TrEMBL record:
<dbReference type="Pfam" id="PF11716">
    <property type="entry name" value="MDMPI_N"/>
</dbReference>
<dbReference type="GO" id="GO:0046872">
    <property type="term" value="F:metal ion binding"/>
</dbReference>
<dbReference type="InterPro" id="IPR010872">
    <property type="entry name" value="MDMPI_C-term_domain"/>
</dbReference>
<dbReference type="InterPro" id="IPR017517">
    <property type="entry name" value="Maleyloyr_isom"/>
</dbReference>
<dbReference type="InterPro" id="IPR034660">
    <property type="entry name" value="DinB/YfiT-like"/>
</dbReference>
<feature type="domain" description="Mycothiol-dependent maleylpyruvate isomerase metal-binding">
    <location>
        <begin position="20"/>
        <end position="158"/>
    </location>
</feature>
<feature type="domain" description="MDMPI C-terminal">
    <location>
        <begin position="177"/>
        <end position="267"/>
    </location>
</feature>
<dbReference type="InterPro" id="IPR024344">
    <property type="entry name" value="MDMPI_metal-binding"/>
</dbReference>
<dbReference type="Pfam" id="PF07398">
    <property type="entry name" value="MDMPI_C"/>
</dbReference>
<protein>
    <recommendedName>
        <fullName>Mycothiol-dependent maleylpyruvate isomerase metal-binding domain-containing protein</fullName>
    </recommendedName>
</protein>
Length: 277
């Protein structure tokens, strides 16, 4: 019997988003020069090449490949904050000597293998409990986190080489799933990190191609809700959807943000919007 507390997600929808993200990365990376692969991205110490090495490493580990040993204590690096970060850095260092062409070949090979594994999962396996980067939940939720991670890293690469996504690309299934995952974190962001007081009703209105409204009530703790039951929000935060993802992911500082209602609460939430460790 499936635990009712676990997040149940449509397998075909989530996999369509993940596979579309991998396809988008393949197309983007295949058009880059070797010089562009060496460009820095908005992640401390990493280049485009390093981001791809991280993605290859993660999917390789999910296929059962052990994390390679590093030539130094990666946990001592300033930008490594936890065990997950240390594992990522081991893969980055291990693959740093590979040519862009060879690393792209690895990416294509490992994602092809992962597609087959994921497509063959039964419904029970998809909904089974597992440990995810956001705590215990279903395996489907774990894969939605993978969509979020891969999509965010595509944006990192695009930032590094100056090739922003088009509106059509931002309207794809991966972006919607990534925002679903980010939206799920906003209860904690608003109630705990942002310190919105008891009784707050906070609406985060995203504009542009990623337009949506995320609503959070604070009743003991912050909780994402579909609506406020006919009541008006006590604070409104209005910003571009793509900018929201970059701020919440710790990649950029807030740009243009509009506030309505309790501006102090709204500003404090924006200051603590970054929830990615």
């Amino acid at each position: 019997m499936t635990d009712p507390a676990l997040t149940r997600l449509d397998k075909s929808e989530v996999l369509a988003g993940l596979f579309a993200c991998w396809d988008g990365l393949d197309k983007l990376l295949g058009g880059l020069t070797d010089q562009q692969w060496s460009q820095p991205v908005p992640l401390p110490g990493w280049s485009v090449h390093d981001v791809v090495a991280h993605l290859v490493g993660t999917e390789s580990m999910l296929l059962g490949t052990p994390t390679p040993q590093s030539d130094l204590d990666v946990s001592a690096l300033e930008h490594v904050r936890n065990e997950i970060g240390a594992n990522n850095e081991c893969w980055v260092r291990h693959l740093r000597g590979e040519s862009p062409a060879d690393l792209l070949g690895r990416f294509r090979s490992v994602t092809e293998q992962r597609r087959a594994v994921l497509a063959a999962l039964s419904g029970d396996d998809w909904n089974a409990p597992t440990m995810t980067p956001v705590g215990p939940d279903s395996y489907g939720r774990f894969i939605r986190v993978r969509v979020f991670d891969c999509w965010m890293h595509e944006l990192d690469i695009r930032d590094g080489v100056g090739l922003p996504a088009s509106d059509a690309e931002l309207a794809g299934p991966a972006a919607a799933l990534a925002l679903d995952e980010m939206s799920a974190a906003m209860g904690r962001v608003v109630g705990k990190l942002g310190g919105a007081p008891q009784g707050s009703r906070v609406a985060i209105e995203l504009t542009g191609p990623l337009a949506r409204t995320i609503r959070v009530t604070v009743d003991g703790r912050g909780r994402v809700v579909d609506d406020f039951g006919g009541e008006a929000p006590t604070a409104v935060i209005r910003m571009d959807g793509l900018a929201f993802t970059r701020v919440a992911g710790g990649r950029a500082a807030p740009g243009a943000v509009d506030f309505d209602g309790d501006r102090a609460v709204g500003a404090r939430i924006v200051e603590h919007l970054n929830f990615v460790i």
